[in-house]
Write a structure and sequence with these properties.
The protein is 37% helix and 13% strand. The protein is built from six helices and six strands; from the N terminus they run βαααβαββαββα.
Length: 189
């Protein structure tokens, strides 16, 4: 069984974690009260200047990459999948943005959190292009899941988040936990 898994908001609470840091930065450093846009790859205010965003990325985003909390039981169930013979590939957009060192830090993050894998693909735009030989694709992104469902033979599983909670597509199975994912994958083995 070959499984391709996204990282942010699929195995870890990226948006929630950085959203809180964006609020802190906006209120305490910038002394503003801007609305934070949680739909962005990196939560931020659209009112921030380019310099303010660059400062946030350098001093909050990049410096906290190893501190993003994992989603409950994600490491455990990924280890169990590996133990049961699954080939795990992490496929992520990390590292695509200017000054974004997330792609470089990801192997260390996975090691610290005891998350095994066979391959890591970073800077992956249009992830479906990498999925030709995979049985399953797990992500939280509406765009990435829809593209995978439309362009591959993978079974697509979407991790439910506040950003995709209203989305529905009968080709995509939505789940709320890694336990659900594990049960689905082991049931179809």
């Amino acid at each position: 069984m070959k499984i391709a898994i996204d990282i942010d908001n699929t195995i870890c609470k990226t948006t929630e974690f950085y959203g809180e840091l964006a609020v802190l930065y906006d209120r305490e450093i910038l002394r503003k009260n801007n609305k934070i846009d949680y739909t962005k790859g990196i939560p931020r205010s659209d009112s921030w200047s380019k310099e303010e965003l660059k400062y946030f990325i350098s001093n909050y985003y990049n410096k906290n990459l190893l501190n993003i909390p994992v989603i409950e039981k994600a490491p455990y169930y990924i280890r169990m999948l590996k133990k049961n013979g699954a080939q795990i590939t992490f496929i992520t957009n990390r590292g695509n943005k200017e000054d974004d060192i997330a792609g470089e830090i990801t192997p260390e993050y996975l090691a610290i959190n005891n998350i095994p894998y066979d391959e890591l693909i970073t800077k992956a735009n249009e992830k479906y292009k990498y999925l030709e030989d995979y049985d399953y694709f797990i992500d939280d992104s509406i765009k990435e899941c829809t593209l995978a469902a439309s362009n591959t033979k993978c079974r697509v599983i979407m991790m439910n988040t506040p950003q995709n909670s209203d989305f529905s597509d009968n080709r995509i199975l939505k789940v709320g936990s890694w336990e659900e994912i594990y049960i689905i994958l082991m049931g179809e083995k």
